[in-house]
Amino acid sequence: MNQNYGWGLPVQASSYAGKLDGSLFLLHGVMLLIFVLWAFYMIFCLIRYRQKNSSRALYSHRTPLSSYIPDALMLIFEIWLIFFVGIPIWAHIREDLPKEETSVALHIVAEQFAWTMHYPGLDGKFGKQNPSLINADNPLGLDENDPDSLDDIVSVNELHLPLGKPARILLSSKDVIHSFFVPEFRIKQDVVPGMNIPIWFEPTKIGQFEIGCAQLCGTGHYRMRGDVIVQSPEEFENWTKSKTKS
Ligand SMILES: [Cu+2]
Prior knowledge:
Helix content is 28%, strand content 24%.
């Protein structure tokens, strides 16, 4: 797993990771350029206007309009970056939920200190849940009397996904605020008790990635981790079959 992390950003493993990184590099590249230009200008001024026996500096003259050109350029760049780069990427990640027919739908329930994945199974329907049925063997309180629940798959700290198919996930929490974070997918979302928060991403790399909890959630926060296992569609189907009870 550690080969996913090097000196730079973690490996890009989702369809929108490249877009996000692109905007980061663009911002930092332009900031670096401005820094270098200003540094050279400052060195030039230090030498050109160093103390010498010439006329005194004038402090009262008007600032010419042209001296605002660098500021105006910066402002235009920043407005362009926000409205034409940042907001479209953000809207894509937050609003462009993939179609239900072409995606893998599941629920992820966070609790102190684990992630429980709930797949609807072959029927595509999530079984009924009842909080009074929750116990160590039934962390989600699935009602076995509900036929929809019989083929549901519950997996603790192990998120299996097929390659090349977007995942639609509904995040919820049993207790406190947690935060679902998979750096390689460039997704981080707070999980808030009482809310069902939708997220999506499309894995683009086969492999194993780490789910971390990015919100301090209690004494066991450090061990609230899970694995994402991105598999070929065939392997994912085999895993689904091996996990289906009936
Ligand atoms: Cu947590």
